[in-house]
Amino acid sequence: MTQQSSQPIPRETILKNAFAAAVAVADPQVIVPQYLAKIFPVGQEPKGRCLVVGAGKASASMASALEAYAQDHWPQVKIDGVVLTRYGHHSPTSRIQIVEAGHPVPDQAGMDGARAVLELTQTLEADDVLIALVSGGGSSLLTLPVEGISIDDMRKTTEALLRSGAPIEEMNVVRKHLSAILGGNLARCAIARGARVEALLISDVTGDAPADIASGPCAADYSTYLDALNIIESYRLQELVPASVMNHLKQGVSGQKPETLKDIDLLSARVSNHVIATAYKSLEAAANVVRDYGYEPIVLGDTITGEAQEVGAAQAQLAREHLVKTDKPIALISGGECTVTIPVGSKGRGGRCSEYLLSLFAASPDLLRISALAADTDGIDGSEKNAGAWFDSGIRESARAMNLEPKEYLAAHDCYGFFAQLGALVETGPTLTNVNDFRIILLDK
Which of 207, 298, 386, 398 has a 20 to 30 Å separation from 86 between CA atoms? Predict the structure, then answer.
């Protein structure tokens, strides 16, 4: 039912309520118990040891949800483990150790925690169960380099890829082939011990393929060493990436190093990957919210990628095209992960969501009734502590009154500075989930 009110509802309220709904539908405290009940129905609970490991921005919350469920439903099952999450994303547990570490650039805490994950997995016995709790951010958090590559080498490689503007899927192809855990290597270790593997995945990637979510620690990998080497070369990073990394990739191409896990390795293995939350489900939840406010939701999909500034400009044009098609107020809702290429010597403040939004703002001065919000569902957008930003006609008027020129801030990649001055940041703190970026444009007639 459309909400009725004698006073118009502020567009800020509608935008933020839609974002809140998108985040809530991916809450691990709700979805983890639901899936555990499906995976382990009554009478089929884990019988041996239940080892819980994982990594990601949502993984600590997933671990606390699992512990609470096990206490109520599996009181006799022995549970232990270790889960890695980003600094500030801790969630209380008693039996599963939570390790906070660096993201997106890996640090020593992350490497030590990843080593603990692998060492614990190597203690599994036949008929034990490994439950892997995996979410976005797990690729850098599970950065345990193969022998011969140091954490500093991994850090330099990650920084070079981040600055190159390479999409996350390509970054992860490289990281898989430098890791002792990613690319299915965690599952490979458990399989060798005769254990059963159940991976619960919260997806922050387009397509929701298990191999792509946190670089697929328990999934068969479709990429090769040659793919990884080609990515390094395509962005001309050979001189920026440490020699140890280049040598390892070249040895892999020549067959001197074992490949990542492949489908053939899983033919007789007890390994299942369950995608329990996706960006598209979150977009649908937001669509239901705006529909109640009288908007016709148009979900553009959860696979929109590209340079944030280019996507923002393209969606401004898309908004114009939709305005001439209908007399109804409409909401354009989308997800997917954009990229921001930072030139050498430019520091920038903000992240891909805020940069997309500033580009949309700059490209739509003629759209007088446009309102929009873009935010990362994990609560942190790039270099600062905001989830993203928003604007409406009032924010645009304030920008004009303050003589803020959006194109100047775009050129400096200082989207945070622009929206901070206008009081238009979206600040949630860590949400303890992560289903990629969220974007919504409201178009009123």
Answer: 207
Q: Nearest to residue 20, comparing CAs of 317, 368, 388, 312?
A: 388
Residues 137 and 86: beta-carbon distance below 8 Å: yes
| 210, 177, 117, 207: CA torsion to nearest 10 | -10
Residue 27's Cβ-count burial label (10 Å; 0-12, 13-18, 19+) is middle
Q: What integer pLDDT is reported at residue 6 of this predicted model?
A: 55
SS3 assignment, position 120:
helix
Q: 215 with 172: CB under 8 angstroms?
A: yes
Tokens of 3: 């909400």
Would you give the DSSP letter of residue 189? H
Residues 6 or more apart whose CB falls under 8 angstroms from that of 16 comprise 373, 390, 426
pLDDT in tens, 189-203: 999 999 999 999 999
pLDDT tens for 103-151 read: 888 889 999 999 999 999 999 999 899 999 999 899 989 989 999 999 8
Identity of residue 239: E
Q: Please give the domain boundaries of the chain with CATH numbers for all domains.
A: 11-22+280-443 (3.40.1480.10), 27-144+179-223+260-277 (3.40.50.10180)
DSSP string spanning 138-176?
A: HHHHT--BPTT--HHHHHHHHHHHHHHT--HHHHHHHHH
Instruction: Check: pTM over 0.90? Answer yes or no.
Output: no
DSSP secondary structure, 217-234, as one string: TTS-----HHHHHHHHHH
Report helix, strand or coil for 9: coil
Q: At which residue do the structure tokens 């490994």 appear?
A: 130
